[in-house]
Amino acid sequence: MFRTIAVTIALLLSAPVLAADGGDISKVNGSVRVEANKTAGEVSTVNGSIRIEDGARIESAETVNGSITLTVDTVAGSLSTVNGSIQVGERSRITESVEAVNGRIHLDRGADVGGAVSNVNGEIRLDGARVGGGIKTVSGNVVIGADSQVSGGVLIEKPSGSWFKPDNSRKPRVVIGPRAVVDGKLEFRREVDLFVSDSARIGPVSGATPKTFSGDQPAE
Hints:
Layout: H1 2-14, E1 17-18, E2 25-29, E3 32-34, E4 39-47, E5 50-52, E6 57-65, E7 68-70, E8 75-76, E9 78-83, E10 86-88, E11 93-94, E12 98-102, E13 105-107, E14 112-113, E15 117-118, E16 124-126, E17 130-131, E18 135-137, E19 142-144, E20 149-151, E21 154-156, E22 173-176, E23 181-183, E24 186-188, E25 193-197, E26 201-202, E27 205-206, E28 211-213
Parallel strand pairs: 1-3, 2-4, 3-5, 4-6, 5-7, 6-9, 7-10, 8-11, 9-12, 10-13, 11-14, 12-15, 13-16, 14-17, 15-18, 16-19, 17-20, 18-21, 19-22, 20-23, 21-24, 22-25, 23-26, 24-27, 25-28
């Protein structure tokens, strides 16, 4: 009997939690999902993913070990994960920041982030999206795709601290795509490969020499 109870409790802890309108959602183990067109406050879990469905509104999403996915036409205050990717879907709006430590960040077409987008490891990619507070990374590639807009510049930091041991043989690759606009300084505190479309507009560059390309993307 006790074994049955223990198994039942474990299943309940790991099962996805669905949001009720307006309230906070907090979990330790397991995924969280906010259903389409629902609202929620602070959404958090420690070990699990977070998914915000079409048209939903939340105050924030935070996890430690897990991904965060916003689908289409969602609204959130901020997004944060330590180990996991962040996907912001079409026409979704983040009023504050998007942060990851070890994980890819992807902003889909029409996505809008009012604050900064930052990580340590993992690609940051904008596909026709807008960022209002700059982009910052240490060892991730950065792709500011066609028709994207970034205010606040781009910063790639130099690795520091005994805990962080990047692959220094690999230079981050930074691509500014066709008709993209980057307002502010592009500052590189480590060696990078920087490619800028001949139809893009960028601010002053420090620490790298831009290589101009034509077409949709630079040659490999």
